[in-house]
Specification:
The complex is a heterodimer of chains A (about 110) and B (about 110).
Chain A lengths: L3 E4 L2 E4 L5 E7 L5 E8 L3 E8 L6 E2 L7 E3 L5 E6 L8 E8 L8 E2 L3 E5 L1
Parallel strand pairs in A: 2-11
Antiparallel strand pairs in A: 1-3, 3-8, 4-5, 4-9, 5-6, 7-8, 9-10, 9-11
Chain B lengths: L2 E3 L4 E5 L4 E3 L2 E3 L4 E8 L5 E7 L5 E3 L5 E5 L4 E6 L8 E9 L6 E3 L3 E6 L1
Parallel strand pairs in B: 2-12
Antiparallel strand pairs in B: 1-4, 3-9, 5-6, 5-10, 7-8, 8-9, 10-11, 10-12
Chain lengths: ~110, ~110
């Protein structure tokens, strides 16, 4: 039972490079989320999705794009990485009701140099 | 707009003593409230949640939380702390009127000393 799986676990990018972070869940969840975690800032919501084919902006969406082409996958893209995007990124998913808890992946540690 | 505040960056407590980690929230609709714990280099793990009903909810590892609607608070508690409880704790809220965004507080580091 894998739950929520994030790929890759670590990555170092040069400024201006692009990359895609992949999140996959095997729980048939409707909702999926991308957060970034920075010291003293907690978890900030980047983008989220309430179903296949839908996405919405969270608190800090600038510099990121997302896609939810398949229900089980939620991709986070950085088109032109900046040092300010150095962070730990977490994906989460939950079922399609507001009163259910979310399940988290193990995180992706991204460093932009 | 939804928001969650955790006013303490760190809470220090001696093993065996009770602990409280504070959380206050702001939502426009009915709140659904959650507590998560994060151990070093790990993802977040769900501890407990308040949906409706009894204001005192019990969760994993002996933790409980008290919902107070008038004070818009959802404090995490444990009667007797363990050294192994040392971790980063996050409060989160979901608003049933905001497309189910899940918003987190800034986190509180709990340090339990032997």
């Amino acid at each position: 039972n894998a739950g929520v799986t994030q790929t890759p676990k670590f990555r170092v990018l040069k400024t201006g490079q692009s990359m895609t972070l992949l999140c996959a869940q095997d729980m048939n969840h409707e909702y999926m989320y991308w957060y970034r975690q920075d010291p003293g800032m907690g978890l900030r919501l980047i983008h989220y999705s309430v179903g296949e084919g839908t996405t919405a902006k969270g608190e800090v969406p600038d510099g990121y794009n997302v896609s939810r082409l398949k229900k089980q996958n939620f991709l986070l893209g950085l088109e032109s990485a900046a040092p300010s995007q150095t962070s730990v990124y977490f994906c989460a998913s939950s079922s399609g009701t507001a009163n259910t808890e979310a399940f988290f992946g193990q995180g992706t540690r991204l460093t932009v140099v | 707009a939804q928001s969650v505040a955790q006013p303490e960056d760190q809470v220090n407590v001696a093993e065996g003593n009770p602990l409280t980690v504070k959380c206050t929230y702001s939502v426009s609709g009915n709140p659904y409230l959650f507590w998560y714990v994060q151990y070093p280099n790990r993802g977040l793990q769900f501890l407990l949640k308040y949906i409706t009903g009894d204001n005192l909810v019990k969760g994993s590892y002996g933790f409980e939380a008290e919902f107070n609607k008038s004070q818009t608070s959802f404090h995490l508690k444990k009667p007797s702390a363990l050294v192994s409880d040392s971790a980063l704790y996050f409060c989160a809220v979901r608003d049933n009127e905001s497309s189910y965004k899940l918003i987190f507080g800034s986190g509180t580091r709990l340090l339990v000393r032997p």
